[in-house]
Amino acid sequence: MKNLIKEKVAETKKRLILEAVSSYFEKEGFAKPTMHDIAKNLGISIGALYKLFPSKDDLFYGYIEYQILLFYNDLIKATQTTKDPKERLTTYIKMKFKAFASKRKAIEDPVIGDPLFFVKMNTKKSNPAKPVFEFLANEFEKLSKTFLLKGDDYMKIAYLFNAFTMGYIEYWLNFGGELEKEAGRVFNRFMEGAKA
């Protein structure tokens, strides 16, 4: 019981730090601040920060995992009023583009510096985006009832769809533009390639 309580306390501390560090990274970016700067901004000791996150990379991975969880919860809420898979997938794109646009400062350096950042993250630990991929695979399976798709491995289609949308985000990070206005066109372009 004592260990369970310690685990729950550590989880709560981590969540509170991730809540606070989210706005800090989104304002200051990730590359410049040191762990000391981050701890000072959060009003905690550097030792307390290192105890929960042994490195700056671990803190950033924690931040990304936390953001994915928030995104997934928001996605489920935003799509619960419609059963149309096309609309649900387009909503996913809009929300993903909006999330990245609002967090540009936080993700710009890691993603531009390492185009495989999210791939590495998914293989480093457990895949924090697994529920999002399951959502996408489920929607493509529903969509296949009205659109004949190339293949029936819906999880594979979900990963390809994610990579396709990430391509637009990486282009936007490097060259700018109005990312959020692209959502409808992005879905249609993907479907052109995915239809049998």
Question: What key phrases describe this protein's structure?
Answer:
mainly alpha, Tetracycline Repressor, domain 2, 196 residues
What does this structure look like?
The protein is mainly alpha-helical and 196 residues long. Helix content is 77%, strand content 0%. It has a single domain (56-194), classed as Tetracycline Repressor, domain 2, CATH 1.10.357. The chain has helices spanning 2-28, 35-42, 46-52, 56-79, 85-102, 104-113, 117-124, 130-143, 154-175, 183-194. Helix 2 crosses helix 3 (46-52). The longest helix has 27 residues, at 2-28. The protein is globular, with a radius of gyration of 19 Å. 22% of the residues are buried.
